[in-house]
Specification:
The complex is a heterodimer of chains A (about 100) and B (about 475). Chain A has about 100 residues and is mainly alpha-helical. Chain A contains three helices and no strands. Chain A is flat. Chain B is of the alpha/beta class and about 475 residues long. In chain B, a hairpin with a 5-residue loop joins strand 10 and strand 11. Classes of the chains: A mainly alpha (about 100), B alpha/beta (about 475). The interface between A and B is large, with 50 and 68 residues.
């Protein structure tokens, strides 16, 4: 099975990564060689095998929903790529 | 000063406790050497002024009972450090300043260690040669234009070049053990769930694990004592009874049963690695261990399964980098194009490749064929180990199928780069602990490592076996300091 250029562009869209035609062609070549290597898995019969979803097969513990770190609003907003000091700002989404 | 940088971590601690050396003297010695070693490109961010200040404070009123009293350490730039830039080797985080500290680095500072700075690594820990970092290649002190391995390449190079007495890295598919093997150092990947993942920039959450990289096995045990602790902030942290690893070190391994898996004898493996492995087997026999041939029949499927599981998890984990709350942002005419341009410009090629693989295998119509299939293979690989551990205590293999290669040699072909991790990946898929110790050199005088894989949560056993081997191997890197300016 091979991945065509149209699929590459679709995956890029799903991944929210913009790519031009040149890049799409490079990725087509790379991904096909990687998937060719991955196809080896089809040689194994796994009909009766349970998937391993997590290695730490423990049940998740519940904890109280408590505030532990306070007053770091400014510090967090400082990492915002936008200049605004009070909010996270994105391009306009509603007309 | 040259004496200071040549001491192991435990020897340094001993000198500090006996007041033969001050924290300031030690810190300044490592900083001075780092200043002269810039060509290796090991550091992304240095924090030298603060380090000297902290060392001064330690000398004035520090607690000498700490496990790492006044010891300066540099760490991989994948650990979030409070108020100090943390980049994960990526452009997209090139200006990110965390407001919190990772649990494992906090454990280091709580035991008296002093942060020197943040070490280079492959972007988001995706790579086996430290060539995917936005901040440039790292050179290995073992040879000019030689890769230090990856993804903890900056850590391995800084450790081998004696710019830090010890360090910590992270290992998702071999990122501690492979660079340790390439640089003649010791690298330990603990059992999944031993060391908290809280505050580590996530790559593949079901595989990521932090661990020590050190000059010898005793130092690895000492570092493990400090960083292996249960943490409620990590939902997969396991609350098991941890050992007193350093104090319990023993070189008596008489009667230990060591498995030799025939599937690790791969095509095209250099003769010198085959003979290194043979010598390791002979050494273990001489030390009183019992050698048992075993089979791990699904080994060959580990790497392809890994290249589904790890990218799938990465594509989810890296969805958070959208240019909104932190990190790099590009412009766009609307929200979606802002996301797309940000991610296209902010991520490097290897990261984009893996996000796309992950997105594809998780996408509608392909999930069962790829992701579910890989999880089933993962079960079979883990079953292989479970079966083997019914008759052995640990498993001996080479750490890597080759020694270090030159910068640029494998960058054109992703699959040939991935093959570097063929012996390390099965361990992550099964959540087991494993250690790489330097065991010899190849014809170019580049180091070669042997890997010991242990049972889950039995790090002490692993440390003891490697400790006893290390004594007999008496490996020396003998670096010529060619990079010093």
């Amino acid at each position: 099975m091979s991945i065509d250029l149209k699929t590459i562009k679709h995956i890029a869209k799903l991944s929210r990564i913009s790519i031009d035609d040149k890049k799409a062609k490079e990725l087509e070549k790379d991904l096909n060689s990687i998937f060719e290597f991955i196809e080896a898995l089809n040689k194994v019969d796994t009909k009766k095998v349970d998937p391993l979803t997590s290695i730490a097969e423990t049940s998740l513990k519940l904890r109280g929903d408590e505030v532990k770190t306070k007053n770091i609003r400014e510090q967090i907003l400082k990492n915002s790529p936008d200049e605004n000091k009070d909010f996270f700002v994105v391009p306009k989404v509603v007309e | 000063m040259s004496d200071i940088i040549n001491l192991t971590l435990s020897a340094l601690i001993d000198k500090i406790k006996k007041k033969e050396l001050s924290s300031q003297e030690i810190t300044k010695a490592f900083i001075a050497r780092a200043e002269k070693s810039k060509d290796l490109n090991t550091y992304i961010t240095t924090d030298f002024e603060n380090a000297i200040e902290k060392a001064k404070k330690f000398d004035e009123k520090g607690n000498f009972d700490y496990k790492l009293p006044g010891v300066p350490l540099a760490v991989k730039d994948l650990f979030c450090t409070d108020n100090l830039k943390t980049t994960a080797g990526s452009k997209i985080l090139s200006n990110f300043i965390p407001s919190y500290e990772s649990t494992v680095t906090q454990h280091l500072w709580d035991e008296g260690a002093i942060l020197l700075g943040k070490l280079n690594c492959d972007e988001f820990a995706m790579g086996s040669s430290n060539e995917t970092s936005f901040f440039g290649n790292v050179e290995s002190p073992v040879g000019k234009k030689v890769v230090p391995g990856g993804s903890s390449g900056g850590s391995a190079s800084a450790l081998a070049a004696k710019l830090t007495p010890a360090t910590i890295g992270t290992d998702t598919g071999g990122s501690i053990r492979q660079p340790a093997s390439f640089t003649g150092t010791v690298g330990l990947k603990p059992t999944y769930g031993s060391c908290s993942r809280y505050g580590i920039v996530a790559f593949a959450s079901s595989l990521d694990q932090a661990g020590p990289m050190t000059q010898d096995v005793s130092d690895a045990a000492l570092m493990l004592d400090v960083i292996s602790k249960y943490d409620t902030k990590d939902s997969t942290s396991v609350n098991f009874k941890r050992g007193d690893y350093f104090k319990s070190l023993s070189s008596n391994i008489k009667g230990k049963k060591i498995g030799i898996p025939k599937e690790y004898r791969v095509d095209g493996m250099p003769k010198e690695i085959e003979s290194l492995w043979q010598d390791g087997i002979t050494l273990l026999k001489n030390l009183g261990a019992k050698i048992i041939d075993i089979s791990l029949p699904h080994t060959t499927y580990a790497l392809p399964a890994y290249y589904i599981v790890a990218p799938a998890e990465a594509s989810s984990n890296l969805a958070r980098y959208d240019g909104v709350k932190y990190g790099y942002r590009s412009e766009g005419e609307n929200l979606i194009s802002m996301y797309e341009n940000t991610r296209s410009e902010g991520f490097g090629d290897e990261v984009k490749r893996r996000i796309m693989i992950g997105t594809y295998v998780l996408s509608s119509g392909y999930y069962d064929a790829y992701y579910l299939k890989a999880q089933k293979i993962r079960r079979l690989i883990k079953n292989d180990f479970d079966e083997a551990y019914k008759s052995v205590d640990a498993i001996l293999t080479p750490s890597t199928p080759s020694s270090a290669f030159k910068i640029g040699d494998k960058t054109d072909d992703p699959v040939s780069m991935y093959l570097n991790d063929i012996f390390t990946v099965p361990v992550n898929l099964s959540g087991l602990p494993a250690i790489s110790i330097p065991a010899g050199k190849d014809k170019n005088n580049y180091p070669l490592g042997l890997q010991l894989i242990g049972k889950a949560f039995e790090e002490q056993n692993l440390l003891n076996i490697s400790y006893s081997m290390e004594k007999e191997l008496s490996f020396k890197n003998n670096l010529q300091d060619w990079w010093i300016k």
